[in-house]
């Protein structure tokens, strides 16, 4: 698919890399020469220096023949104009990043009339994901699949978890319908076999029936009290969206923000929240404001380092849960090591939204793991696809791929090597990131990853040990 991306900041760069690896023919439009040069070095794509909001740039034949335009500059207005212009010159589908709450909530005309098929708002999406984590009763991140009947859960193992710690997978006393699909250790992603040992400090990814996942998680993790008080460091867009949602749920919210003008604006828009105009890195301030009695402390400033450091300090000062917003995937291993309860990446969440939109209804859902080395995808097997009608052990799936569940009608199956995939089956697949395009192609979705991989005759079985 020929795709034009306008703007290669953090979000645009991430989307471009994902689409390039999946075989898209990319055109990049960017005003900043340094950014343009960097993306040209990293990816084999056509680059145009200029504004994405001008008809002159968009009517360039290379751009005009695109099937999709994604406008993700820092300007909402530029993104909207780019999409309107793109539709008028015949580009079929458009995506616009619109971050300003006044735009995203109060558009006088519909997004369709503006020529926008999908609006993405990384700040809002990140805030909603943080809210979801805060309302979970178990201190475990869970992602639902197969209409909620299958879940993926990640658990950081400690010495007291005797069911997992220091045991080979083949020797674990866990239900057969539960799979350990991956182990994250010191920043590396391991697709385990039966002889692999889970060590304290590892984060394991469990996939299985929702009721089994809930039972296992309840056994190794205590239920936590309902969140009632939240302290948010950073009054930017993410902080605003989060505070607004939490206040609507009846929680007591404090927002710490340094900028005086922004504090006045927040006080007007969030009358139910307490706005503190102060330096959030002042530990004495945090003590005075009752950090040790706070149910949750959330850091959503624009600096990853500040977010991680202050989340860690808040944890040491007594905050029951700490959540940090991060942009750089390289910091993901630190999250596990530092004891931060949850890290949210707006650009990964947004990239997932764009990929789901591009692939349409055939790809039901997609979950990008924080270190970007693996994905969990849920998709339908298309008629006459390569994988349909074959036993899993003869499917030729790339090495490191696990088909965790098959949903056939209302029946959820944990497959073995001899199970045969059928047309219209709904699969939940765990895969290394560079193999996703190949897997989608095998299921008839038309994906075509650029990387060459070695096929494995036994990959894809639900039982990996």
From TrEMBL:
Keyword Lipoprotein (UniProt): no
Signal peptide: none
InterPro entries recorded: K_uptake_TrkA (IPR006036), NAD(P)-bd_dom_sf (IPR036291), RCK_C (IPR006037), RCK_C_sf (IPR036721), RCK_N (IPR003148), Trk_Ktr_HKT_K-transport (IPR050721)
Keyword Transport: yes
Keywords: Ion transport, NAD, Potassium, Potassium transport, Transport
PROSITE patterns, per the entry: RCK_C, RCK_N
Xref: SUPFAM superfamilies: NAD(P)-binding Rossmann-fold domains (SSF51735), TrkA C-terminal domain-like (SSF116726)
GO cellular component: plasma membrane
The RCK N-terminal domain, residue ranges: 1-120, 227-344
Segments forming domain RCK C-terminal: 140-222, 364-445
Taxonomy, superkingdom: Bacteria
Alphabetized Pfam families for the sequence: TrkA_C (PF02080), TrkA_N (PF02254)
GO molecular function terms attached to this record: potassium ion transmembrane transporter activity
PANTHER family per record: POTASSIUM CHANNEL PROTEIN 2-RELATED-RELATED (PTHR43833), TRK SYSTEM POTASSIUM UPTAKE PROTEIN TRKA (PTHR43833:SF5)
Name of protein: Trk system potassium uptake protein TrkA
Taxon lineage: Bacteria, Bacillati, Bacillota, Clostridia, Eubacteriales
